[in-house]
Amino acid sequence: MLAKRIIPCLDVKNGRNVRGVRFSADQDAGDPVELATRYDQEGADELVFYDITASSDGRAIVMDLVQEVSERVFIPLTVGGGIRTFADVREILKGGADKVSINSAAVHTPDIITQSAESFGSQCIVGAVDVLRLETAADEPPRWEIHINGGRKATGLDALEWVDELVDRGAGELVLNSIDADGTRDGYDLELNRAVARRVDVPIVASGGAGTTQHIFEVLTEGEANAALAASIFHFQVYSIPQVKDFLTDRGVVVRPYAA
Amino acid sequence: MIAVIDYGMGNLRSVEKAFQYLGYEAQIITDASELTDAHHLVLPGDAAFGDAMRNLREGGWDQRIDDHVEGGRPFLGICVGLQLMFASSEEMGQHTGLGLLPGRCVRFPNSEKVPQIGWNQITRHTASPLLEGVEDGSFFYFVHSYYVQAENDDDQLATTDYGIEYTSIAGRDNVFGVQFHPEKSQKIGLKLLTNFATLN
């Protein structure tokens, strides 16, 4: 049976791994190569490297990291942050990443998704979105708005309509990052994940808000997500990946057992 | 030497790196005419079946692969590389494959999320040196929208369940194919690559 995935995300700034809280505050969480290696040994199902500086220097640093990690870690590696052009996508894939996570660039130039998927295949193109929940009346269904530029800029795009377009254009997977929940450790936005999971055919990855093993369990069951991404709870060893996997296994969720 | 075929389709570096990490001499070969002293041949691939097959033919790889296989030397197809080993595919039109094994390649049913992305288990069937030490129920990393149905049960070394039960490891004599990415399947994937590299 296909297992639910646990994906640690490393937010990389100046070659150091930093934590994001609602897209702003920084806190040093250690050497990224060391962390990546530890996560691999602990049973991470994939790794995401996110360049939070989104500059050309930042890209070079992240690609050096991916290069170094890919020499000794044999699980899928995704790179995101600051991708602007088709050439960026190509550079990242050639540099050793297995997938590229495209966010703001898809809003500015939707063709980047189409062109990348046609050239490299949908399997390596991840459509990532940062969404903010909108205020709605109690009897209305929930709505979310797409934000770009690290969550700072509203676009007016309805999140559910936008994810449809990302999938139509060839994104093979979606990462749903809730700005409201990000870094709070109060839990994922379950309604968001469920709404998108029921809408699209591609797998979805929940992001933003993991604080406990219960949160991860909830988003993979009630939230219907196929994978859960988390940063700070792993970086600061609030929980280890084996602890999360044991918790899930005990509750009947299929995960890949970590090798002893 | 292990040769990894570069026909312009997908992430080959990780396959090369995995073999090198394991201590084997591996090399990416871009020009079919340079394929001379390879004892092991690997056909990776992430792209669409039709494009991949066209590139293989245009590069003269189809004939080279036939020669290699007929010479009794080990061959391994990975992901689309496995699919290409079979006779035909219905991915975006009808395509003819390398025909190393009988069977065809079809799309997953709409009842499941497509592509299948993630770690799934294998159920072992026919015994093979490729699966020495690889236990029934092991998890490997899969990314694909199409799957292979081998025509002969004996060619089916393992199957995987994703809405339907399909061929996830195929093999006969010196010819092998895996639908998952062993180079991205951590320890168990490296174990399978070691088994392949030590085949005579």
Architecture overview:
The complex is a heterodimer of chains A (260) and B (200). By secondary structure, chain A is α/β, with parallel strands linked by helices. Chain A has one domain (5-250): TIM Barrel (Alpha-Beta Barrel). Chain A has helices at 32-42, 56-70, 86-94, 104-108, 111-120, 159-168, 190-197, 213-221, 232-235, 241-250; strands at 5-13, 16-17, 47-51, 77-80, 99-102, 125-133, 144-148, 153-158, 173-178, 204-207, 227-230. Chain A has an 8-stranded parallel barrel with strand order 1-3-4-5-6-9-10-11, surrounded by 8 helices. In chain A, helix 8 crosses helix 10 (241-250). The longest helix of chain A has 15 residues, at 56-70. The two termini of chain A are 21 Å apart. With 200 residues, chain B is α/β, with parallel strands linked by helices. Chain B has one domain: Rossmann fold (3-Layer(aba) Sandwich), CATH 3.40.50.880. Chain B is 24% helix and 34% strand. Chain B contains 5 helices and 14 strands. In chain B, the strands form 3 sheets. In chain B, strands 2-1-3-4-14-13-12-9 form an 8-stranded mixed β-sheet, sandwiched between helices. In chain B, strands 6-5-7-11 form a 4-stranded mixed β-sheet. In chain B, strands 8-10 form a two-stranded antiparallel ribbon. In chain B, strand 12 (156-162) and strand 13 form a beta hairpin. The longest helix of chain B has 12 residues, at 186-197. The N and C termini of chain B lie close together (12 Å). The A-B interface holds A 1-5, 40, 45, 70-72, 74-76, 93, 96, 98, 120-124, 172-173, 201-203, 226-227, 256-257, 259 and B 10-11, 13-14, 17-18, 21, 46-48, 110, 113-121, 139, 141-145, 161-162, 181, 183-190.
